[in-house]
Amino acid sequence: MMAEIPVEIDWSALSNDALRGLVEAFVNREGTDYGAVERSFEEKVEEVLRQLRRGEAKIVFDLESNSPNIVPRS
């Protein structure tokens, strides 16, 4: 059986609350590491938001698992 291709979701199509909730869940889940300097949760959230706005990351929705994720744009 062929795996479903994730659907890209434009971050700007989400409400501010939905976008922030998605990014916060991603940061909590991933335990995002930013190198030698420890960053606060809020700083990590803001960095992911900047990456989305700059087009360095994208939101994808996996139809198989019925869940969104944030991944680097290739």
Structure description:
By secondary structure, this protein is of the alpha+beta class. The chain has one domain: Orthogonal Bundle (Arc Repressor Mutant, subunit A), CATH 1.10.10. It contains 2 helices and 3 strands, in the order E-H-H-E-E. The chain has helices at about 15-30, 40-55; strands spanning about 5-10, 55-60, 65-70. The chain has a 3-stranded antiparallel sheet with strand order 1-2-3. A hairpin with a 4-residue loop joins strand 2 (about 55-60) and strand 3 (about 65-70). Helix 1 packs across helix 2. The longest helix has 15 residues, at about 15-30. The radius of gyration is 13 Å and the shape is globular.
Topology:
Layout: E1 7-9, H1 16-30, H2 41-53, E2 57-62, E3 67-72
Low-confidence stretches: none
The strand order across the widest sheet is 1-2-3
Query: Which architecture name does CATH use?
Result: Orthogonal Bundle
Compute the number of strand runs. Answer: 3
In terms of DSSP E residues, the strand content is: 15-25%
How far is it from the N-terminal to the C-terminal residue, by CA? 26 Å
Characterize the overall form: globular
Number of helices: 2
If you compute it from the alpha carbons, what radius of gyration comes out, rounded to the nearest whole angstrom? 13 Å
Q: Quickly give the structural class.
A: alpha+beta
Quickly name the level 1 CATH class.
Answer: Mainly Alpha
Average pLDDT works out at: 89
